[in-house]
Amino acid sequence: MGVGLKNQGSLTAMPSVYINPKTDFAFKKIFGSNHSQDILISFLNAILYNEQNTIQNLVILDPYQAPRIEGIKESYLDVKATLVDNTTVIIEMQVLNVLGFEKRVLYNAAKAFSIQLGVGEDYTLLNPVIALTITDFEMFPGNDRIISRYRLKEKDDLTEYSDDIELVFVELPKFKKELDDLQTLIDQWLYFLKWANQLEGVPTKMQAVPAINHAFIVAQQSKLSPQELEILERRQMFLHDNRNAILKARQDGLQQGLQQGLQQGERRKALEIARQLLNVLDVEGIAHTTGLTVAEIEQLKM
After folding, report:
1. What is the mean pLDDT of each run of 10 residues along the chain (302 residues)?
2. What are the Cα distances from residue 142, in Å, to 139, 145, 148, 296?
3. Is 3 inside any structural domain?
4. Within a domain: 4
5. Phi, psi (5° rounding) for residue 60?
6. Residue 32 burial class via C-beta count within 10 angstroms: exposed 0-12, middle 13-18, buried 19 and up
């Protein structure tokens, strides 16, 4: 068991095995399905609105972001929702700290903002976008803040230019509380994200929150179909293999030549992974997993 699993207190009667919310497949299933509105509302109210019941309702959307202009890269999110005030919230769970990730976050937020308008529509119709990124690595190692928020501000006096695009980051490695130390709804959600797959039941301390109980129910591995279990296993293998590849590269001192061969090497790796997933995921899902375009994946099927 990992740190944080001591002194769990009494658990629910029937032990369960839960999927790991930190994998993109599991995160999307728990927070992004049509039956997960209460889960997502509770989670967003905790993380974005300091546990206030600001969000009463929302609509979970297709996370595929099609470009308005031909030639612009498509993008795939883990969860996308529209709040009642028309604010768009896009959410991504990221386990691996890959090259250019911080730019991808900004790109996805800017695209979610821009694609709201049709051709010729007025800019006043644009609504705010919040990009919530949860990482299983430290994005900002220089401070111990778990949740960080960024907006456009003047460089010197920090007057605000606009709150139309906001970037929110949650760094799970910085959350170190034990179960007995949980005090807030934020604490409970972060504990769920970090440790759910290592629990055997819902800790007594967390049972009072209906949305968290629901999240544990959705996360039960026994409820997955054989196809879902296969997808989950492949995603876990993919993450494990990539973690090991990163560690080996560091150990062998391969970083010196990484920049030169990165683009070509990453593309070969992405194509190989895409071939392996052709009979498992649909084209859009493979594109999200590998970063390839739908057209590139369609060519592999020929």
Report:
1. 44 62 88 91 96 93 60 64 94 85 91 86 93 94 93 91 94 96 96 94 92 94 73 68 58 48 66 76 74 82 77
2. 9, 9, 12, 39
3. no
4. no
5. -85, 130
6. buried
Q: Are residues 163 and 255 in the same domain?
A: no
Which DSSP state fits 298?
H
Is pTM beyond 0.85? Reply is no
Residues 268 and 127 in one domain: no
Strands (E), 95-198: 129-135, 147-153, 160-171
Residues 228 and 203 in one domain: no
Q: Which residues contact 90 (CB under 8 A, 6 or more apart)?
A: 63, 77, 79, 80, 108, 109, 112, 129, 130, 131, 132
Q: What total number of domains does the chain contain?
A: 2
Secondary structure class of 75 (helix, strand, coil): strand
Output the CA torsion sign for 229, 40, 213, 178: positive
Q: Is residue 25 located within the same domain as residue 99? A: yes
Count CB atoms within 10 A of the CB of residue 246: 13
Q: Which of 219, 239, 271 is the last residue of a domain?
A: 219
Instruction: Please give the single-letter amino acid code of residue 54.
Output: T
β-bridge mates for residue 150, sequence order: 167
Give the closest residue to 49 by CA, choosing from 193, 168, 172: 168
- Segments forming the whole domain that contains residue 282: 224-302
Distance of alpha carbon 123 from alpha carbon 109, whole angstroms: 16
